[in-house]
Amino acid sequence: MSKDSPDYQPSLEFRKAAINLWIMSINTVSAENLPNILKQGHLVIDVRTPAEFRAEHVSGANLHPLDDLNPGALKTESEADPIYILCQSGKRATIAAQKLAEAGRKNVFVVEGGTNAAKEAGLDLEHGKGVIPIERQVRIAAGALVAAGSIAGLLIHASFFAVPIFIGCGLVFAGITDTCGMALMLSKMPWNR
């Protein structure tokens, strides 16, 4: 069948390649543009965890955590209406953009630098009370495990030194890959839901 035929359907491999090509050239928008985007009534979603969102978020952004993101649940007047996505710095927003692209949404934009960039640009943020962001929870947990492992290694048995070594290796891995296993585990805890 010819590509010019009205009945032509591209293969699954071709469609996946097209999506991957789009992902490699993801549409982005500067955080400074968010006030105008929100004034125009466009959908802005924040894909961070509920705890991170409660701690602080761009005023007017809607929470749709990445773990629970359902492209079909994002309601806009038409499929052609843009959706703007932000997270803390941009990585999770890019993953969310990929999910939306795979679901057929075409007009998706990632906010460059996410909430961090919005904060630096002086945008209006809403702040929660008594909420500890995931990044701080990771530092608290890692520090507590390193301290406890070191003290136990000194006072109980040298094998406890494996705990701070393991945590140190995990932090190096997180820095290299920009993926933190401890943050993923903490985001699943009841107090972060």
Number of strands: 7
CATH homologous superfamily heading of the largest domain: Rhodanese-like domain
Spatial separation of the terminal alpha carbons: 51 Å
H and E string: HEHEHEEEHEHEHHH
CATH architecture of the largest domain: 3-Layer(aba) Sandwich
Taking all Cα atoms into account, the compactness measure Rg is: 21 Å
Q: How would you classify the helix and strand content by structural class?
A: alpha/beta
Number of domains: 2
* CATH class group of the largest domain: Alpha Beta
Strand content: 5-15%
Tally of helical segments: 8
Helix residue percentage = 40-55%
**What is the arithmetic mean of pLDDT?**
83
Would you mind describing this structure in some detail?
Helices cover 46% and strands 12% of the residues. With 193 residues, the protein is an alpha/beta fold. It has two domains: 12-127, Oxidized Rhodanese, domain 1 (3-Layer(aba) Sandwich), CATH 3.40.250.10; 134-192. The protein has a five-stranded parallel sheet. The protein has a two-stranded antiparallel sheet with strand order 3-7. Strand 5, helix 4 (91-102) and strand 6 (108-112) form a beta-alpha-beta unit. Helix 1 (12-24) runs antiparallel to helix 4 (91-102), helix 6 (134-155) packs antiparallel against helix 7 and helix 6 packs across helix 8 (181-187). The mean pLDDT is 83.
